[in-house]
Design goal:
Length: about 230
């Protein structure tokens, strides 16, 4: 998909990071040399892009938190908002809107005024990885931010993990051994003393075009997560 032409983000100013504690999000993080070098190369090739670690987006007190993999090169890395500006966000935001979790069905830019309702989106890896594939060590290094997000912000009732890497990162951030709760689309993991973890295939172009993940499949998983988040405890 060719990215929609949008006004470029100001690469000098992180978008939305002023709302997050520094332990949750650090726009200047360079802990992963390979990712830092890749962002530097992207800044040279695409100076109008955001090209920084991407902060979480949405309600800081949300009962439902959605965790993706990492920013897309011409999506979140361009716009500065998770799942915004590329194919993966199309299905996600349409589903959120249909479920009453988003004010609008499209997210086009970080400054478009879109608001999420009782929902927050974040990534397991905050920086753009080469070929959209973070290394395990990079996901583990970045896990400190996801763990702090769960620890320092009001704890969500449900975490929806998009894909196996996000699933692993969520469990690690919750202090749980990933092997105890294997990833499976539609699985619901009731982790003692932690938010319920719900799994879904990632809403990537590949998964949707091959119909590994359909709009209905994703809507069903999101409905499960939303219902669990609304349960009275």
């Amino acid at each position: 998909m060719v990215p929609v032409s949008l006004p470029p983000a100001d690469p000098r100013r992180p978008l939305g990071d002023e709302r997050w504690p520094s332990a949750v999000f650090d726009a200047g993080c360079k802990l992963c040399p390979r990712l830092a070098a890749h962002l530097a190369a992207m800044r040279a090739a695409h100076p109008g892009y955001y090209n920084l670690p991407v902060p979480p987006f949405g309600d800081r007190a949300a009962q439902l938190v959605i965790v993706g993999l990492a920013p897309g090169a011409h999506g979140a890395n361009r716009t500065g908002r998770p799942f915004t500006g590329d194919h993966a966000g199309v299905l996600l935001y349409e589903a959120l809107f249909s479920a009453g979790l988003s004010a609008r069905p499209k997210s086009v830019a970080a400054a478009d005024g879109l608001e999420l309702r009782n929902c927050r989106i974040t990534n397991a890896v905050k920086c753009l990885p080469p070929a959209n594939k973070p290394e395990t060590a990079e996901a583990d290094t970045c896990n400190r931010y996801l763990a702090a997000e769960f620890r320092l912000l009001p704890r969500p009732r449900v975490v929806l993990a998009l894909g196996a890497i996000a699933h692993r990162s969520v469990l690690r951030a919750l202090g749980v051994k990933p092997g105890r709760y294997p990833f499976a689309h539609g699985a619901v993991h009731r982790v003692p003393g932690a938010p319920v973890v719900v799994d879904s295939y990632h809403c990537s172009r590949y998964n949707t075009q091959t119909r590994r993940l359909t709009a209905q499949m994703f809507a069903d998983v999101l409905a499960t997560a939303r219902a669990l988040a609304s349960e009275t405890r």
